[in-house]
Each structure stands twice: as structure tokens, then as C-alpha cells.
Design goal:
The chain has 244 residues and is an alpha+beta fold. It has a single domain, classed as Fumarate Reductase Cytochrome B subunit (Up-down Bundle). The protein is 61% helix and 8% strand. It is built from nine helices and four strands. The protein has a four-stranded antiparallel sheet. Helix 2 packs across helix 5 and helix 5 runs antiparallel to helix 8. It is elongated and about 65 Å long. It starts with a strand and ends with a strand.
């Protein structure tokens, strides 16, 4: 149950009362879970495209052997959706303030945490159990390691998107993929051709898989150890107020 008192929002859970603040809006939460579902299917369908193990029965009529085509089509379609969501998220990062107005994005301004030596020391000390209290940075919602990791994630998504467009272009020569592939042709040549582009595409995928596993682990670990309600925040939008 949520109660408002003295400018704070209090979450009452049985006998426990926790001060919380609203940190994730509805769009942010919805986009997060949509991206999560899309990435799962892209990984699963990507593995199948690389190794199509269905529909190999020669006695089955040809009309029922288009499994690869359907899976590839869904893979490409959801890839475009992921690209659109990623571009919106990058725009929000760069140009949207916390009050919803346009300007220098609040998250972009938080980037100075990357150059804060004390923030690095506190976060590393917390992760190696040399510090009990969770570090709090009054000017940033993220610690330096978290901020750097998120930047790496979006670079991976941009990489897998660009290589995905190059790989889709031969099947959509007159569509958007074909048009963009013409612009990205020097990058394809630099990578060594489509065969090497596919390998890069797979490496980007493994990077995203690794990030996802570590991300889930760290969110759960922090929620339990620091009692920040970080895991619940991506559902309710409310996170526990951390004291410096």
C-alpha cells in the first residue's frame, strides 16, 4: 500500500514501512519488458536460422516446409522493432529531461560519474564486500560501473542492428534494408564481406546474452543485499530511497 507523507511516498508491506520514489515511468517499464521479450525471440530464432533443424522430412509436402522462412521473417520484423525502440531510448537519453521537457538529457549529464574516482572506489568496495552500505551518488541514478555497462549494451545493440541490416539486405534489396545497406557498404567491405558480417552478428549476440545474464544476477543481488527494491521497481516504478 502506498502512502504520501511529508513529500515522501511510503510503501507499507505488513509491519514494514519503506520510503520509495518513482524512478521508472510507464513507457520506460513497458519498453524494457518489450525489449526483453524481443531479445529472447531474436536469440532463439537466430540460433534456428544458423542451424535449421525443423522441416527436413522429405515425405512432408513442400507447402509445409516454410518454417525457416517464417522464422527468418519474424526475426527481421522484430529486429526492426528493436532498432526503433533503441533509437527512441537513445533520443531519450540524449535530449529528454526528468520533467519530460527537451534539453540536455538528465541521463547524459549523469555521465560524469564515469570520471568520479570516489564513486569508482565506493562501488568496487561494495561489490567486494569491503563496504556494507550501498553507494549513493546524488547526481546520478547509476554507479560508474553500471553506467559504463549500459553504454556497452547499447553499443552491442547498435552493432547487432547494423550487421542485421546488412544480412537482411539480400532478401530485401528494394526495401529499407537494401537502401541502408547501400550506405553501410563500406562497413561490410571493411568487415570482410557478408560471411564475416554474420560472424560479427553472432559475436554481438553473445555479448548481449552475457550482459543479460549478469544484469539479472546483479539486479537480484542488489535488491536482496541492499534492499533497494530494484527488482520490483521495473514492475511498479517505485524504488527504495537510499540514504547517503
Amino acid at each position: 500500500m502506498l502512502l504520501k507523507r511529508e513529500g515522501h511516498v511510503l510503501l507499507k508491506r505488513g509491519e514494514e514501512v519503506v520510503a520509495v520514489r518513482y524512478v521508472f515511468g510507464r513507457f520506460t517499464r513497458a519498453a524494457h519488458w518489450i525489449r526483453f521479450a524481443i531479445l529472447i525471440w531474436l536469440v532463439v530464432s537466430g540460433f534456428y536460422i544458423a542451424y535449421p533443424f525443423l522441416g527436413r522430412d522429405f515425405l512432408t509436402p513442400t507447402a509445409f516446409k516454410f518454417v525457416q522462412t517464417y522464422i527468418r521473417a519474424s526475426h527481421v520484423l522484430l529486429g526492426w522493432v528493436l532498432i526503433a525502440l533503441t533509437l527512441v531510448r537513445i533520443y531519450e537519453f540524449l535530449f529528454v529531461r526528468s520533467d519530460g521537457r527537451l534539453g540536455l538529457g538528465d541521463e547524459l549529464r549523469m555521465g560524469r560519474v564515469l570520471f568520479d574516482r570516489q564513486a569508482w572506489r565506493e562501488q568496487i568496495a561494495y561489490y567486494v564486500f569491503l563496504r556494507k552500505a550501498h553507494p549513493v551518488h546524488v547526481y546520478s541514478n547509476y554507479g560508474p560501473l553500471q553506467y559504463l555497462t549500459y553504454i556497452a549494451l547499447y553499443l552491442l545493440i547498435l552493432g547487432i542492428s547494423v550487421t542485421g541490416i546488412l544480412l537482411a539486405a539480400p532478401y530485401q534489396p528494394e526495401g529499407l534494408a537494401g537502401t541502408l545497406a547501400g550506405v553501410l557498404k563500406p562497413l561490410e567491405i571493411w568487415m570482410g564481406g557478408l560471411a564475416q558480417v554474420r560472424i560479427w552478428h553472432h559475436w554481438f549476440m553473445w555479448g548481449i546474452i552475457l550482459f543479460s545474464v549478469l544484469h539479472v544476477y546483479m539486479v537480484v543481488w542488489n535488491s536482496i543485499r541492499a534492499r533497494t527494491l530494484l527488482l520490483e521497481a521495473m514492475v511498479s516504478g517505485y524504488k527504495a530511497v537510499e540514504k547517503p
